[in-house]
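tool=predict chain=A
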Amino acid sequence: MVRSAVRLAVIVMVAAAAVAVAQTGDDQEWGGAWQNGPPTTFPQAFSRFDGAYDPGTGLVYFLGGRLADANTDGSIWTFNPASGTYADTGLDMPTPISNYTINVLNDATGEGYYVFCGRPSAGGVVTSVQVYYPATNTVVQLPPADDFPGDATHSCSSALNAVVNNKVYLAGGFNATAMSEQTWVFDPMAPSGSRWTRIASADLAVARAYIMGAVVDGKIYAVGGASWDGAALINLDTVQMLDPAAGTPTWTTLASLPEACSSSRAWGFDTGSLYVDPTDMTPLSGKIISGCGVWSTENEHVYAYTVATNTWEAFPWFQIPHRDMAGEFLPLASEPALWIWAGRSGSDTTPSQTSEYYSLGLIPVELQSFTIE
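tool=predict ok
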């Protein structure tokens, strides 16, 4: 009886303290700021590319990208956050592409970094699926039976990519002449030739691409993007949510962005996440942080979305305008942070070679949930 009372008292005090931290943070502006990271040393500055962090090697991997001369480089580079250095792995992608997102999946071989479709040097789009395995520094292109099964008006290049329960959900896409509204699922554990399934009930409200994708509590958020009027891209403020676990998954329209945004990166944090803004303790729990990007003249704007209240607010801006950059969350014990690398900033012929990071903190151990036996 005494131990139960002590346990209850501790739980109540911890819960009250955690709520106080969250309320204090939500009543204030975000207090942090984006900082300069080590400039990239790729052969030329990449844009329209992505990066993924591997805890096993402690490295971030970049699977090539578009160059300033409009060609595509397929060389696979790494960034070591401990030393701040970049290195060429000496390996190239089978089909060099840009306009891709890296998806970390487990398959029969191990942990692989999957990329879908994309734009090759010659222009247009490809339908192939490629996988890089960081543990062995090997790369493969899946057989044609596993190519994206779209048609002439439905490509997965520049589509939203989001991983939920070891499956990739791809929504939208652009082939330079037509936008897609379709949503497809790729299962790396299914037999070759049967890995793709279309969710016919989950067409986007507006056919679009260059969408910022994020996952919170198993739900997928499609933030912004751009449609096509036959001559130019039209940036959108549309935000939608898909629950893959629903009996009949459909995209639900949510509160619009404060402005039209596309071609950037977003990060989602599940409810209960212990990450906070270290300056004022604003919680990241149940939030999405998204860059704005836009086409054709990019900006440095960043916004934060709170899932529970369906509201957007300003987040500290990047130091310089960015779009089409790589982005990743590095959950390092020494300094967890949101990161972006390179991307377009001012001109396609002079992409940025900068990196930026936004440091995060953790709720103090004494405020984390525990019980006393």
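The chain is about 5% helix and 35% strand. The domain at 2-367 is CATH 2.120.10.80 (Neuraminidase).
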